[in-house]
User: Fold this.
Amino acid sequence: MKSSIISTGSYRPKQVVSNFDFEGIMETSDAWIVQRTGIRQRLFEDESSVRMATEAARNALENLDASSIDCIIVATYTPDSFIPTIANQVRAHLGITNPIPSFDINAACSGFVYAYQTAHAYIASGIYKRILVVGVDFNSRYLDFSDRATSILFGDGAGAIVMEAGITGSIDCILGGETDTLETIRMQNMSDHGNPFVSRPLTDSSYFEMKGAEVFKFAVRVMESSVHAILERNKLTSEDVDLVISHQANQRILDSGARALKMPKEKFLSNVAEVGNTSSASVPLLLDEANRKGQLKPGMKIILVAFGGGLTYGTALLEWVA
Ligand code: UT7
Assistant:
């Protein structure tokens, strides 16, 4: 059994913050940010991850009956609360009263591709038939605005897809990670209130921290190797690929990926200039944008690829159906 994406949706926060706005609070410039990253602005949320996820889900369900969903998976590393999960709350806000499972997963910026693969596995095995998958992150809550190399990169947002059992759609997916890179991207756990019986060091930083140059090299390397691997094992070449929907971290990473894979830059869709890096929301936000612009045609071969904290990566190859 295959899984197909039958619908997409997204939510973009209203607050637009340009590079020029950053010039007002730190030693940086629009010229530096555009030249090093391609980012011109990012969008910042003023409410919650749950609001963003719910709005993206509603958008994806505009022509579908929410009660037909039999599982909800949300990819995020920035839930408003660990319990209830974002997925639990989305289910409630959508008014789904059936006792369906709903849960969050976290693989940082690779999270959406991990959630996609999880949903696919459920559908392919016949366990569930129609799954809502959401990617959402509220990055701006955890940015250190005194760290100019990191804070200028990120924005907030959410994207959603509905997947269901079908005869075409999914082709393959590769997930992976590296173990010698645990310190490359870090966000320490929130509060540890201590324990009268156990002595342990308490953490005090919950800022998002990243060694940007190392992530850059990793991203370019795994984008090339994982896409090569998925094409090779399906006896395809980069010429067979119609579009690449990559995690939007930096325009230079997208351009390097296109060069390394010998694909025209136009095949690598991009919205990083307008939304910045939205972590788990990045791939589904761009997928929904392309879908609504009519850029995705039935039968097209599409690659989804993402990379980030862990360090982790994921690449999916699919045929567009919706
Ligand atoms: O979703 C997770 C995935 N994350 C990523 O993919 C991030 C990947 N990394 C990157 O996109 C890039 O590494 C950055 C955009 C973060 C940084 O670009 P870079 O070309 O690697 O710059 P750098 O960190 O090597 O810094 C070069 C210079 C430094 O100055 P000196 O030491 O050469 O005098 C920095 O202090 O640029 C300086 N710099 C800035 N200058 C103006 C760093 N940030 C800024 C800034 N404005 N915002």
Remarks:
- The chain is about 30% helix and 25% strand.
- The pocket of oxa(dethia)-CoA is lined by residues 28, 32-33, 36-37, 109, 148-149, 152-153, 212-213, 215-216, 219, 249-250, 253, 277, 279, 308 (CB under 6 Å).
- The longest strand covers residues 156-166.
- The radius of gyration is 19 Å.
